[in-house]
# Entry
Amino acid sequence: MNYQWYPGHMTKAKRQMQEDLKLIDLLIELVDARIPGSSRNPDIDELGKNKSRLILLNKADLADERYTERWMEYFREKGYYALKINSRSGAGMKAINSVVQEACREKLERDRKRGILNRPVRAMVVGIPNVGKSTFINSYAGRACTKTGNKPGVTKGKQWIRLGKQLELLDTPGILWPKFEDQKVGLRLAMIGSINDEILNIEELALSTIEYLEKEYTGVLAEKYGYGEVFGTLAVLEEIARARGCLKRGGELDYEKAAKLLMDDFRSGKLGRISLEAPAVK
# Structure
């Protein structure tokens, strides 16, 4: 299956992002901790090459801790600031403020020397669809969230969100990139739900997910769904269908229903903490 999804509104969003970058001091990029490499839009590196960078590995509670630590080290070696967070529960969020100040220290020092005091850091929040940007902003802002109104040069209606006196955030729509050079990237994005399920063959996606889990997390599926030794990805999907009563009229197994159930269980963390890729070995 060929994985690709680039609706027209993403082109417009990318153009707008290029304009807005002129106004910001820091780029906060959210990635999914299960696929930190594949969930990074390569266009962001080009767009933000002259900006301070903070990468947040969100949904860290769903990812394999061993892999996450390796990714944190990988990003820091590249010169980025990196933190692991779970914006839904708030885990790791308290550390962000100090890292933001550290990332923008040179800018703040320049301001101070020019007599500009108390100007907040302006940060743009970027990331592909479904990495949790809105949840992050709501969690980060809490009840102290106040909209500061339009800024010069920003499209009418766009709002900045002020977080206390030290930071203003600008949200952006989730954008992918026009062509996945590596179809494994597309597959991983589909597995975590960043590509619209409606354009996918969910049964093929489930079989690919089973293939990966059987190889890298042996026994997880058998333990979760309570079946014995079977061979082949389709046989596993059949066992999941039986275990969860996914049947059509007449008692025939409903593969599509079983596939959706499996993907929901995987994406929600019901199969445990699972990562889908490791950083490239030097």
